[in-house]
């Protein structure tokens, strides 16, 4: 069967999964892991060839160590989100979000071309986003005027790469990344208000963007392997929102948000044929990303400049052991530096996504030599920020505190088929 038939069949299957997931939302800052196997290892597979989804997500050069494979996955993420507002001498008022479960689809395809040194990889991932839904509370002296706080962000990526085996030990990969995303807010603080009120940011279409990535995979011997990848920023088109404008006013609000540059390096160690130990270090450059890294403050026209997020370093460790002839057990841990400064807490109401610790475990059951079924569970302990109430002139109100507390957990299932 020709490569074009394989490509059509695989992309058709991946497109169905993508379209089914396009009404979903991702969860978290930028998902720390992708797919059930990668999730179960704490996201640490940049330095080892394990399976197609983790390879395409973090270091596409590692597909050089895989057979032809299709991987699909589905993740459900549940979060507990609470905002406490305190006014000195008056008391504390609490609001809890009803976020529900957020579904995240993943898929990847790896194919060996006729040239034995070249492989093609395609992925489709829900990579980033959030969902929040807080009720209005008119009794709250600090936040009562905000009304209902609801927001949703959804970002998907479609990476396409060629991995080239340069030598017996070294492979490199490169290719473009397409993206689409939607940012929806019931009150759009990122655009100037008119007549003393902010406009709605609901109902916008999906917007498109793109970038590129490059990866390297080095295997000096049968025990050690090393990898590194660099993902460029994803430059998104300007988000546009139709508004109810007065005669003579512009009828469209415009907001700019991109996705950050990411750099990852990893190592894999196989002390024997039944055990793999991995570790990754990752840098995510939110500080220099439009929208996310812009200062969290009000501008002269009343709009908010950005979210004030800081660039973060994360460390990931994982292990995968063959416990029986058909079953692999996995476990992992991820740590992330602080994303949101306390002074920016007010500007991130409903979007404090800076998890600090993540614990995971899972397993893979090999139905036969070609078909594997995987499952992973993740738990992210409580994190949060504490900052003052900020008025439209950037005045921090003394004696006020806005506290956000978040915890999350997820369950991921996946299927990998080698052929």
Structure, briefly:
The protein is mainly beta and 419 residues long.
Description:
The protein has 419 residues and is mostly beta strands. The protein has a single domain, classed as Porin, CATH 2.40.160. The chain has three helices and 18 strands. The strands form two sheets. It has a 14-stranded antiparallel barrel with strand order 1-3-4-5-6-7-8-12-13-14-15-16-17-18. The chain has a two-stranded antiparallel ribbon with strand order 10-11. The longest helix has 19 residues. The radius of gyration is 22 Å and the shape is elongated. The two termini are 13 Å apart. The N terminus is likely disordered.
User: DSSP helix count?
Assistant: 3
User: CATH superfamily name?
Assistant: Outer membrane protein transport protein (OMPP1/FadL/TodX)
Return the structural class. mainly beta
Mean pLDDT: 85
Principal-axes geometry comes out as elongated
Distance between the termini: 13 Å
Write the layout of secondary structure elements.
Elements: H1 3-21, H2 36-40, H3 52-58, E1 69-87, E2 91-96, E3 101-112, E4 118-134, E5 149-165, E6 170-185, E7 207-218, E8 224-231, E9 235-236, E10 239-242, E11 252-255, E12 262-272, E13 275-284, E14 312-322, E15 327-336, E16 357-366, E17 371-387, E18 400-418
Antiparallel strand pairs: 1-2, 1-3, 1-18, 3-4, 4-5, 5-6, 6-7, 7-8, 7-9, 8-12, 10-11, 12-13, 13-14, 14-15, 15-16, 16-17, 17-18
Key terms for this structure?
Porin, elongated, 419 residues, mainly beta
